[in-house]
Automatic annotation (TrEMBL):
Annotated InterPro entries: BT1, FBT, MFS_trans_sf
The organism of origin for this protein: Aerosakkonema funiforme FACHB-1375
UniProt keyword list: Membrane, Transmembrane, Transmembrane helix, Transport
Recorded GO CC terms: membrane
Pfam families, sorted: BT1
Membrane-spanning intervals of the chain: 29-53, 59-77, 98-115, 121-141, 162-183, 189-209, 239-263, 275-292, 304-323, 343-361, 373-397, 409-429
Protein name stated in the entry: Folate/biopterin family MFS transporter
Protein topology in the membrane: Multi-pass membrane protein
Length: 486
């Protein structure tokens, strides 16, 4: 059976429109999509890591919380990877070698977890390397998307960011679906071994990247000047006050590790069930993005932050029903209560996080928006690290262990009420739309320090464009750019 040339053309056109959001397929585009997909699919081992630390290494909830915080450190120094890529080319190339190395590092780290890691310190190093691998590839592939996005036609504006986000989200959904199933039927070591395959896709995809060698040497004076200009921007009151607010909001003590021990050791939740919960929460997060985009994006910062903080505190207290087994007295099964609770809290959590992205994007003054946004996101990630460390201290003080959960209700209560701490500082936020004026802080738009970080300033847009993905209206994505300073 022969397929006509016109038939093939129609198939290609349909794929271009429906799958690639109107962008003409190319080897480099395939590479970009694959790298973002890998960033999502490596979450396949997230649940396995939790069980590995708990069961194989026998760590306490406090120790797991400390280790999780340490593992997140690469995301707090992500801008550094961007400066390295632009200022320290390898064999004359800024992108391809770093992608190859990040893939190889990720595979080596996962393979080590699958084979030779049997102690806490070695496990910590290996898990940190897995984070480094993803963070480096994220910085590099972001820069490639920025470079291509600058060349997009008006008809396709925002489509590339939507495609990249969709690839990552698709990988995350697959990981959520299979993570529990695999762990239910195989050991954590097998799951780590399977996960080790995916970073190799990043290394292979790097050869599809079209990149010309550069002879430009790092300019120390230029970098020093850019750092000074960035410092001037950070000292502006309209920037550092919201930044501190974001840090406060993100750094409240976390009860996550202790709660994981509780639902697995006390309630007996199996990996497969936890995988289903992860799948539900992934879809719930998408709903949260859509709700924010549809109904809440134009609400003033002080109002949206104030209400989300209060509502988060109230609704998160429902965890106490599960911790104290009060849900059983109400006739609600532990599993059904957990699914419903996670569904509601995930929607609210995403709605609460979206204003952080919006605020971070809009307080950045022209000229330094890319680098400053990356730094603000690093501050947010730093808050998450502090959250795990504060939580670990509380777990230790309250005597919460693998089997003792007598004071878990108190930890949950403290953790929930700590989210109210930023409320007195709402005045640190702009009352309406921020109109930041920073003099003498402009970076050169084409400077190396900016290019590799620029997509961080569209990270908010990647999430916000979910509405466009759901409605099939990718051409509107640019209209919702969060980095536009009105």
């Amino acid at each position: 059976m022969q397929v006509s040339h016109s038939g093939l053309s129609e198939i290609k056109e349909a794929l271009t429109k429906k799958v690639f959001f109107g962008i003409e397929p190319s080897p480099e585009l395939i590479a970009i999509v694959l790298v973002y997909f890998v960033q999502g699919i490596v979450g396949l081992a997230r649940l396995a890591i939790s069980f590995f630390l708990k069961d194989e290494l026998g760590l306490s909830p406090a120790e797991v919380s400390v280790l999780v915080g340490i593992a997140a450190l690469p995301w707090a120094v992500k801008p550094l990877f961007g400066f390295m890529s632009d200022g320290l080319p390898i064999l004359g190339y800024r992108r391809r070698p770093y992608l190859i190395l990040s893939g190889l590092l990720g595979t080596a780290a996962w393979l080590s977890l699958a084979t030779v890691v049997h102690s806490t310190w070695v496990a910590t190093v290996a898990i940190v390397f897995t984070s480094v691998a993803v963070a480096v590839s994220d910085v590099i592939i972001d820069s490639l998307v920025v470079e291509r996005a600058r060349k997009e036609s008006l008809a396709n504006i925002g489509s590339l960011q939507s495609l990249a986000w969709s690839a990552s989200a698709f990988g995350s959904l697959i990981a959520a679906y299979f993570s529990g199933f695999l762990l239910e039927n195989f050991s954590t070591y097998i799951v780590f071994g399977i996960t080790a395959i995916f970073p190799l896709i990043v290394s292979i995809s790097a050869w599809l990247i079209s990149e010309s060698p550069t002879n430009q040497l790092p300019n120390a004076n230029s970098i020093r000047q850019q750092v000074q200009q960035l410092g001037k921007a950070i000292t502006q009151k309209t920037i550092w006050m919201p930044t501190l607010f974001i840090l406060l909001m993100q750094s409240g003590p976390s009860a996550e590790s202790a709660f994981f021990f509780f639902i697995t050791n006390e309630l007996g939740f199996e990996p497969e069930f936890l995988g289903r919960v992860r799948l539900v929460t992934s879809f719930a997060s998408l709903i949260g993005v859509w709700l924010f985009q549809r109904f809440l994006k134009n609400i003033p910062f002080r109002t949206i932050f104030g209400w989300t903080i209060v509502l988060s505190t109230i609704l998160t207290m429902t965890m106490l029903l599960l911790v104290t087994h009060a849900n059983r007295a109400l006739g609600i099964d532990d599993r059904w209560f957990s699914i419903g609770d996670n569904l509601i809290l995930s929607v609210l959590s995403q709605i609460a996080y979206m204003p952080i992205l919006v605020l971070a994007a809009r307080i950045c003054p022209p000229g330094v928006e890319a680098t400053l946004f990356a730094l603000l996101m690093s501050v947010s990630n730093l808050g998450g690290i502090l959250s795990h460390q504060f939580g670990a201290v509380l777990m230790y003080w309250l005597g919460i262990t693998q089997t003792n959960f007598d004071n878990l209700w108190l930890l949950v209560t403290i953790s929930n009420f700590s989210t109210l701490i930023p409320l007195p500082f709402l005045r640190w936020l702009p009352e309406t739309e921020p109109e930041t004026e920073v003099r003498g802080t402009a970076l050169q738009p084409d400077s190396p320090a900016v290019a590799a970080l620029e997509l961080d300033s569209t990270a908010a847009n990647n999430l916000m464009s979910e509405l466009s993905i759901v409605k099939g209206e990718q051409s509107l994505a640019k209209e919702e750019q969060l980095t536009t300073n009105n």
